[in-house]
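## Example pair
The file below holds two records. Each record gives the amino-acid sequence first, followed by its structure token line.
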Amino acid sequence: MSSNLSNGVSSFDDTSSGSLIEFFNRNVSTYPTDVGGPKFELVPVKQQKDLMVNIARMHAQQEYDRIMAMVEVLQKQALSIQHRLELTDKVHKAEYKFQPHVGQIYWLAHDSKLNNTVLLHMGPNDWTTGAPSHLAYITRIKWLGDFTWIEVEN
């Protein structure tokens, strides 16, 4: 008899009537080898691969969509902050002769007499005889606690 290794388990080949009979080790077989063995179904590998790829794509797409939704929210927040900074710059370049207070609402207007932007207490509808003709109101604004300004609706 000659020595043979089958999947790490020692086995032996045998010769019978002058021909070599290869040893088949039933203990390490991946499928049943006896008539009374458990039922054996072939695994549809291609279908399993397709299913796994489709599930992986579905989960990856869901994660991608979730991340893109967060990116959209962050972009909106960034644009809002950028707008606040631009408005804050406009207010700091404007002329005013009073001390603004945090949380108060003011008006930003263009004064054609001064040819400059001004910060005002009074809006276009607050004048008893109507707003002066040399003022072109730009927007209604509020001073926040972080010293930035935001637009507020009328």
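Second record, same layout:
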Amino acid sequence: MIDLIQKLQLKYPNISFAEGQVFRWSPSNQTITYVPTDTPESRWSLLHELGHGILEHKAYESDIELLQKEVAAWHEALELASQFDTVINTEHVQNCLDSYRDWLYRRSTCPNCSLQGIQTSSEQYTCLNCKHTWVVTSARFCRPYRRSQ
């Protein structure tokens, strides 16, 4: 992992790398936090976070925009992998994206009639079927609580 990080630092001097507990891109300080383990999955995650950095991903306005940014970052990671003698398992990529798709599906499911709604603000959905409105949490990595209004 250290060899890959050193190569990435040379090629992308405007991006910093810091050890941490999770893989994460921070647009505010242009830093990728990484878990210092050397497994194929950790290398893939590092390249994925670098994808966010290269694409200059910042905040997102809607849940679907977040999913689009995740797809774009994985696409960028797949492109980067060939430059750094790595092959990213596409099933791993789809599993990661499925976690976002599942999260989005749960958030957009109407608590009143169980059909899908549309996001009308960063924390609100409205059902297309029954017109019910509900609020969701702004957190990305927790259970998608839905509170009816």
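Notes on the second record: The two ends are 48 Å apart (CA to CA). Residues 78 and 88 are 6 Å apart (CA to CA).
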